[in-house]
């Protein structure tokens, strides 16, 4: 049957689209069938063009009107890309229109109809409700669709509805003798922002037909260039442009949209326009890895920054988060911190600005239980992270469609044969030794890292099962990696400063005015199992009224070797009774999404843990490599380790430098022996609250060779300086004062405001402390500069 101009209303001739509904066995699914020529009332022609309608509530024909060929010229078909189109419309339980899919709400409705292009006929119109996991509907959804949770509760889930979709489309195609079709939708959102993300989260595969579709808005604009911009077009505006009827009130929700899209298509195919559907939109089946050269030109309108990623997420996980959008080859670049570990951020490059704009709509969508922030980024930032120039790296990454695994913690003496033997025959490396890439320092020394190529997912999974197995005398970490991470790690380790950074002036360490207790009185509590994002304020809120009983500077966060929160904290209370009450009241109380264990302990036990020991049910275990007698020989409560400042800034117990304190300080400065200090600070670090400015505390920011000289030197006390302190983390190892001053240009800083930190070997640690003239300026700097690139590295800023 020929389909003329649908829903067209004119004064001289009114045309109704006549269908009748036949309920199908599955609840929520309806067929709307137009093959009713045998039931045409007497006196009407059986030859097309006719359009018929029958209401769902009655079997009486409402009206019969023959179409006027003057209003609807005969359709002239030409060759097209596909034999048939399937016009598809969908709605979710949340936002509608331009915001469809932006709120992660589930699909609740699908309406579709086959359009056979060669015969100029339409098939059965189907409408199917979809049972969502969450049946709560937004106000906009209720108002626009008229659907209710009760009705949706009786429908089939999405996977069953999609199976029915494939079966019914195939059945309709057989009627026309066709076997190929392409979807046609009003815009990109239904396919890219709803169907692909939702099915990916629910772990079932979409049929191949959902990876290719026509965007009716783009096709319309191609056919009618003088119409509105593609982004401003809607089904209603396209119908109005063509003079078609736009009264949605006469039809069920979704039915009007599909009928109108069919009418638009047939008008576009008429001899007046003679449009040909030849260039469908495509959705990539999978993300393709590949290298990126620094000489490439990357359009800033195609790049985003994703923040808040789980540290173990891979490029494939990120590609899955953006499922439905086309990421450029090698377009996922995971950002690393100064220690070469992932910092929870990634730069993603898409194939076009249109895809990038759709990606921005996924701001605060979820990856597992975490929401991911999505922001605009620049092509320059992407190249600094993902770009590389090393021929060795380019050759390593030249093999396409490989799975990359990163190995960390290798013995420095490990050879290629050792690594291949460790992996074994169950996970063969692509190309043998050519599939291994050891990461080295500029002088050729190994870093303990390596990258390995595997030809398939199975081999990579076998390799990952060896995570934390032993090679030599060390356990090896294995995890997924990316081409961009290979480039970034090599760039970081191979970069060396042309002019070594000069050490900062040595600042003496003076005895602190407050100390960590070492007695056996159980006036402290230990908090275990804290969320890693918990700060001092969170702990104080957790303590409630008991915060009034905390000693000044009595909250101590325990950090791990990387300077990150370990999940533990110690609190000094004013008395043992207060500590007992807190332990009883707060034990297993919830903080955020985790319950926290609270135990009463003594100052001596707390001191042992803070300096690297462990506290367990069997008693105290001293810090590794240090016997209990030697450990007890040092009066840790009286002084601060001289080399502590060479570690993370939080790893210090800073002392506010006041004129009174300076005057009371003894002329001789006491230090730990260098070896003992290293043993203490290499394992567990701590910091008190509140932290203070680096220019007013006893930070030592010099290589170890300067410590001995400092021990015999006399120092002029420093007066406190006003302002606020910001910690920089993730700096390139070749960063100097000049680069930091340039980074903070316009913030009224000078060289004396910056304190560079070094590790125990005298090398830059990748951290720096910066004192700003005022708290407002410091906050502004953190807000504007956090996450920006400095020398190819993503720099993190924190108010201290």
From TrEMBL:
Gene Ontology, cellular component aspect: nucleus
Family annotation (Pfam families): RRM_1
Compartments in which it is found: Nucleus
Start and end residues of each RRM domain: 302-379, 403-483
Biological processes annotated in GO: mRNA processing; RNA splicing
Keywords for the protein's UniProt record, in alphabetical order: mRNA processing, mRNA splicing, Nucleus, Repeat, RNA-binding
PROSITE patterns, alphabetized: RRM
GO molecular function per UniProt: RNA binding
InterPro entries for this protein: ESRP, Nucleotide-bd_a/b_plait_sf, RBD_domain_sf, RNaseH-like_sf, RNaseH_sf, RRM_dom
Domain of life: Eukaryota
Gene3D superfamilies: 3.30.70.330, Ribonuclease H-like superfamily/Ribonuclease H
Family label: Belongs to the ESRP family.
PANTHER family: HETEROGENEOUS NUCLEAR RIBONUCLEOPROTEIN-RELATED
Stated name of the protein: Epithelial splicing regulatory protein 2
Species assigned in the record: Callipepla squamata (Scaled quail)
């Amino acid at each position: 049957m020929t389909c003329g101009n649908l829903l067209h209303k004119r004064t001289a001739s009114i045309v109704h689209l006549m269908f009748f509904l036949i309920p199908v066995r599955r609840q929520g699914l309806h067929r709307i069938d137009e093959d009713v020529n045998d039931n045409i009332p007497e006196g009407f022609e059986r030859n097309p063009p006719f359009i018929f309608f029958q209401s769902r509530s009655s079997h009486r024909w409402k009206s019969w009107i023959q179409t006027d060929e003057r209003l609807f010229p005969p359709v002239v078909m030409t060759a097209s890309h596909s034999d048939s189109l399937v016009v598809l419309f969908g709605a979710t339980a949340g936002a509608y229109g331009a915001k469809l899919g932006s709120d992660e709400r589930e699909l609740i409705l699908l309406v579709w109809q086959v359009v056979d292009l060669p015969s100029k006929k339409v098939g059965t119109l189907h409408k199917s409700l979809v049972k969502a996991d969450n049946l709560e509907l937004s106000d906009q959804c209720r108002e626009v669709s008229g659907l209710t949770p009760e009705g949706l509760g009786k429908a089939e889930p999405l996977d069953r509805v999609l199976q029915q979709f494939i079966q019914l489309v195939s059945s309709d195609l057989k009627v026309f003798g066709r076997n190929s079709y392409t979807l046609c939708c009003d815009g990109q959102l239904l396919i890219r922002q709803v169907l692909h993300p939702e099915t990916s989260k629910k772990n079932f595969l979409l049929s191949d037909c959902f990876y290719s579709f026509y965007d009716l808005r783009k096709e319309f604009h191609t056919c009618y260039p003088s119409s509105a911009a593609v982004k401003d077009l809607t089904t209603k505006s396209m119908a109005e442009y063509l003079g078609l009827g736009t009264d949605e009130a006469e039809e069920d929700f979704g039915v009007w949209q599909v009928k109108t899209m069919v009418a638009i298509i047939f008008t576009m195919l008429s001899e007046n326009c003679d449009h040909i559907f030849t260039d469908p939109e495509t959705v990539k089946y999978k993300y393709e890895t590949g290298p990126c050269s620094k000489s490439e030109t990357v359009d800033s309108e195609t790049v985003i920054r994703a923040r808040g990623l789980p540290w173990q997420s891979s490029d494939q996980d990120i590609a899955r988060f953006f499922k439905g959008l086309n990421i450029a080859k090698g377009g996922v670049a995971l950002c690393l911190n100064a220690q070469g570990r992932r910092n929870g951020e990634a730069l993603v490059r898409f194939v076009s600005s249109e895809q990038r704009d759709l990606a921005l709509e996924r701001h605060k969508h979820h990856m597992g239980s975490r929401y991911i922030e999505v922001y605009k980024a620049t092509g320059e930032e992407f190249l600094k992270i993902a770009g590389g120039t090393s021929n060795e790296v380019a050759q390593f990454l030249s093999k396409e469609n490989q799975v990359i695994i990163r190995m960390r913690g290798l013995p420095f003496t490990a050879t290629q044969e050792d690594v291949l033997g460790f992996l074994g025959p169950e996970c063969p490396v692509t190309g043998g030794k050519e599939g291994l890439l050891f990461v080295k320092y500029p002088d050729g020394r190994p870093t303990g890292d390596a990258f390995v190529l595997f030809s398939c997912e199975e081999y990579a999974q076998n390799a990952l099962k060896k995570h934390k197995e032993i090679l030599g005398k060390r356990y090896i970490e294995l995890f997924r990696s990316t081409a961009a991470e290979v480039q970034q790690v090599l760039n970081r380790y191979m970069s060396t400063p042309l002019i070594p950074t000069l050490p900062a002036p040595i600042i003496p360490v003076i005895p602190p005015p407050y100390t960590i207790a070492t007695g056996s009185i159980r006036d402290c509590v230990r908090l275990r199992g804290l969320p890693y994002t918990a700060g001092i304020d969170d702990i104080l809120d957790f303590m409630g009224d008991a915060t009034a009983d905390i000693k000044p500077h009595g909250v101590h966060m325990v950090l791990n070797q990387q300077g990150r929160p370990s999940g533990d904290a110690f609190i000094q209370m004013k008395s043992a009774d207060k500590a007992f009450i807190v332990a009883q009241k707060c034990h297993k109380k919830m903080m955020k999404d985790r319950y926290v264990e609270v135990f009463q302990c003594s100052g001596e036990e707390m001191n042992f843990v803070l300096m690297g020991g462990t506290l367990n049910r069997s008693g105290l275990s001293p810090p590794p490599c240090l016997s209990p007698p030697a450990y007890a020989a040092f009066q840790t409560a009286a002084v601060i380790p001289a080399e502590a400042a060479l570690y993370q800034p939080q790893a210090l117990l800073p002392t506010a430098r006041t004129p009174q304190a300076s005057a009371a300080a003894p002329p001789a400065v006491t230090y730990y022996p260098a070896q003992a200090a290293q043993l203490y600070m290499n394992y567990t670090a701590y910091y008190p609250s509140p932290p203070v400015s680096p220019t007013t505390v006893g930070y030592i920011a010099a290589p170890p060779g300067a410590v001995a000289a400092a021990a015999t030197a006399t120092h002029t006390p420093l007066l406190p300086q006003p302002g606020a302190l910001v910690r920089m983390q993730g700096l390139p190892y070749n960063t100097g004062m000049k680069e930091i001053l340039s980074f903070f240009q316009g913030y009224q800083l000078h060289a004396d405001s910056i304190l560079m930190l070094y590790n125990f070997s005298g090398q830059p640690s990748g951290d720096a402390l910066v004192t700003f003239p005022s708290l407002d300026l410091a906050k502004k700097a953190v807000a504007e500069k956090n996450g920006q690139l400095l020398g190819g590295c993503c720099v993190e800023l924190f108010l201290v």
